[in-house]
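Subject: sequence -> structure tokens, single chain

Hey, anyone have a minute? Need the predicted structure for the following. Not urgent.
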Amino acid sequence: MLLVKRAGLPVWCRTSLSSVRAPEGMPRYFILVLDDISERKRAEEALAALNAGLEGRVSERTRELKDANTALLNEVYQRSFAEDRLKLALHEKELLLKEIHHRVKNNLQIIISLLFLQAKMNDDPATTGALTASQTRVKSMALVHEKLYQSENLGSIDFAGYLQNLVPNLMVAYGAENRRIRVNIAAKDLPLTINTAIPLGLIMNELVSNTLKYAFPDGRDGELSIEGHAEGGTMQITVRDNGIGIPESIDWRDTESLGLHLVQMLTRQLKGSIDLSRQSGTEFRFTIPVREGCCFIWEKPR
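Reply:
Had a minute. Here:
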């Protein structure tokens, strides 16, 4: 009940009415009790106002969260769309690079065929030999591009896989495929960039060719080994055969052999070093520094 004092101030009261009865049960009078509950009423009103404020803030925060969630979903969509476009662009780039390597390989193959025809039509053994050597050199470069467009990783090729294709090709080129020359290749975990694969492939082409042509005369048996591994900041490669070896009288660093000149020139191009051992045949040892992103990609074995 709301009452008003004389001063005009409202007062909230709680009323309770009870009756006093006579012995015969008839009411004699009534007692009215007024309890001032203004403070409690004001507290209830303050609590109601506080609840209303909290509900308002909750509603406002809910709207803010909803707006933030909508913005986040939109950002996720935009990022997903951008990632899809990036993946598509990368896929198109990979296809383009594969096509480029494929076309380069095909163009080099045309050159190889022309050299083959020229050698076949030539009667001079020296000229024929030079043309055959040129064929194998161009093949070693074409093989790099072939491996690149066949590889899932366009940035590098596996050195061991490259050698396993290069050596049989050379054996066919020099008529050694039917001879009993054992070939051992141990060069795992050596992924090479194209900047290293081409010069290193040419080096391997020259050394393997020399082995097949000169190390095992008169059709004798022999063994050719190529080993490679990463060591610290360098790549160590060894090409070894148990043939007749290079005579001590020949200065291999100053010779008229175009192949050995190429080996030295290409080793310098790779900023590497080369040593020769003439014990029990011929052994060339190469040390090539690892230059990430330029010459060699070293990935630790898993």
